[in-house]
Amino acid sequence: MKKMGPGKADPIAELYVSLDSALRQDMQYHYAGMMSALYWIGLCQDPKYGHIALVDLVDRIAPQIIERMCTDTPGLSSLSFVSLGPGDGEVDIRILRHLQKSLAIHWYYGLDFSFELLRYAVGRISVAKGLRDCFPMRAIYSDFAEAWRYLPLEEGIRLFSLTGFTLGNYNEAYLLGQITKLMNGCDFLLVDARLHDLESWDGRSPVSKQKLLHLLSSYSDQLTNRFVFGPIEAATMASSSDVTFDCKISREITCVPKALNATIFCKGLRTTMRLTGELVARERLDLASTTFYRCLELQDWFSGVGLQCIWKIQSHNVALFLLKRTSASKKKLIIRKKEPKQRTINPQQL
Fold first, then answer.
1. Distance (Å, rounded) from C-alpha 83 to C-alpha 144?
2. pTM of the entire structure?
């Protein structure tokens, strides 16, 4: 699998003539295109995957998050909400509902490198029940590394949100380094993470087969396999039913102590490229990776990348952290290019 950070997308031709380009480690092309977006939305609706449980957790603890922000910033009366990967939009809808009970929403920004998911999420938010006030929305089609070009500078406070277990798809130091470039000292960052329960694991020894199966139980599902196989389906004539799937545990991507990368791979791929007709024969092909963390180790690790945890909650196999940039984290001056014209959308207008 090609190792790279959340940078610029490859030209579209490369996606369809090279499997190595389609299978980016940051999973960018797993969400791009109509079919991949639909596969992701379908996966979010599967109770075994964990997205529904995450939405319910965010809905329950959002008042605690808002209370902690108000305690940290006395007199806080309004803010902008910046969603880094809105997904299906459901987490954002829940957060926005709670924010409106206590604060005025200056702007909502949805940023995603999947045009299809961005459009879907913003459309859902614009007509969501329970969002009383009319607040301006801006949809930004960009990856995280290029977001500084399009996210407007603001004097007010912003709540950045990185949910949907996105942190676990990247090298964490690189991803959070890109995000902290967007943040001011008064901004907040909400991050979620999947947790593993291997409390006795020393961070080096192999994980037993029994513990491995338990850890990956939520990924042994047809909907998951279909989603992770999406880029291969787009680039070749194969479908997920043509191969067999398996998982492995490693530490090839993560830089957080005692974290584990879970990688789903397929075996026995025999097909042709969709555009070129080139024969493809792969005995084994890594498809997608995500990361499981230990809560305390991840919390401590944040300080090493210039972020301070001011609040956290752990619920079963999920943790949520509210972070701020530390005083030692100096923001570099960024010269922004002139923004392309973007349409401001009020929810009631769609």
1. 11
2. 0.86
